[in-house]
Amino acid sequence: MPLAELLGQDLARTRLSFMVESGRVPPALLFVGPQGVGKALAALFFVQALSCPKRDEGDACGHCPSCLQVQRQLYPDFLMVEPEKRQIKIEQVRELQDFISFAPVVGERRVVIIKDAHLLNQPAANALLKTLEEPCATVSFILLSHRHNLLPATVLSRCLMLPFVSLSGPTIVQILARQRVKGEVGEVDLEEAAAWSGGSMERAIFFLDVENLRWCRDFVNSFSLLPGNSLRAALDLAEEASQFGSLEVLFFLLRSFLHDTMLYAQGLHVQGDENPALSLSGWSGKVEAFANLGVQPLLLMRQQLLVIERGQAVNVNLKLAFEAFFMDVATAYCSGQ
Ligand SMILES: [Zn+2]
Asked: Is the pLDDT of residue 275 over 70?
């Protein structure tokens, strides 16, 4: 029973099952929530549940020919649209419009999943909107996005939003263990990978690699020691950061560390390591020292980081951007107070 196996997303799972069981399927759904928490998986399970001839209590059987075809993306009434080079173009929307112009072949409806829907470019979003404005009983859309605020309000208003939440540490450990990754790495690594994941399965899997974990520990440590450190140290760190394998993880670490320091600087933290509001566990000592810089410099850093993160989408020179950022952090004591 695929939907039943969706861990950590009880609200979404319950509502999707209810839609299948009651037959009240909205013309357009929008799954929102952080990256790597199961939105795409839930969408596939939902399509299985809608198409499965043996479905029971709003869930698919998971092993009939129809369920297997959906899983392999070979089901004739199902189309998956994914960004190409960080964009969903109008040609792709035209293709999906062509796909839904035909009646369902085997099932009761045709379903289109659009991954990373916030990457629809303007003409594509306009074209999709026209389709969403003329809903059809035999067509359903499922849009997935971790940045749905970037979608046009007109598109948002046509979709029923379904929130997905960050996964808890124990849930991530449970999923990793279930995927039999557990056999290859020790129990301790699963726990630590989960602790560093920020509730994202993608990151948790990334952190199962001991090298990645070690690099990130060293990186956060070096960053925490930057204020008051030499400009040479800032340049070295920029060099390393620009060569690291996952920018998504890198930005997540910096964002999380700065988030935690803001809590300390504003006195909103609770004493001790186990404060659930903290993004990174086990770093309270370093975070507290860093927070002594004061709220204003920290706000500036967060702003600067945001600009770099946005810039990476338009191919900004990351090494230069990190050099400027880390040098500012190194000299924050001189300029910030
Ligand atoms: Zn089935």
From this structure: no
pLDDT of residue 268 exceeding 80: no
3-state DSSP assignment of residue 99 = helix
CATH superfamily membership of 3-163:
P-loop containing nucleotide triphosphate hydrolases (3.40.50.300)
Instruction: Please give the distance, rounded to the nearest whole angstrom, from the Cα atom of residue 128 to the centre of ligand 1.
Output: 30
The Å distance, Cα 49 to ligand 1 centre, comes to 7
Assess whether pLDDT exceeds 80 at residue 187: no
Tell how far the Cα of 32 is from the centroid of ligand 1, in angstroms: 26
23 Cα–ligand 1 center, Å:
17
**Between vectors from CA 241 to CA 239 and to CA 242, what angle results, nearest 5°?**
70
Q: How far is the CA of 69 from the centre of ligand 1 (A)?
A: 9
Containing 296, the helix (H) or strand (E) segment is helix 295-311
- CA separation for the pair 13, 32 (Å, rounded): 14
Q: Say if residues 31 and 142 touch (Cβ distance below 8 Å).
A: yes
Summarised one tens digit per residue, pLDDT across range 253-264 is 999 999 999 988
Q: How far is the CA of 237 from the centre of ligand 1 (A)?
A: 51
DSSP state of 53: T
User: 313 to each of 48, 52, 177, 242, how far by Cα in Å?
Assistant: 34, 39, 34, 14
Q: What is the dihedral of CA 204, 210, 214, 219, to 10 degrees?
A: -40
Q: How far is the CA of 161 from the centre of ligand 1 (A)?
A: 26
Q: Please state whether the predicted TM-score (pTM) of the whole model is above 0.85.
A: no
Q: What is the pLDDT of residue 274?
A: 55
How far apart are the C-alpha atoms of 14 and 8, rounded to whole Å? 12
Task: Tell how far the Cα of 109 is from the centroid of ligand 1, in angstroms.
Answer: 15
48 CA from centroid of ligand 1 (Å) = 7
User: How far, in Å, from the CA of 65 to the mean position of ligand 1?
Assistant: 7
Band (pLDDT 50/70/90 cuts) for residue 176 is confident
Portion of the chain with pLDDT greater than 70, in percent: 93
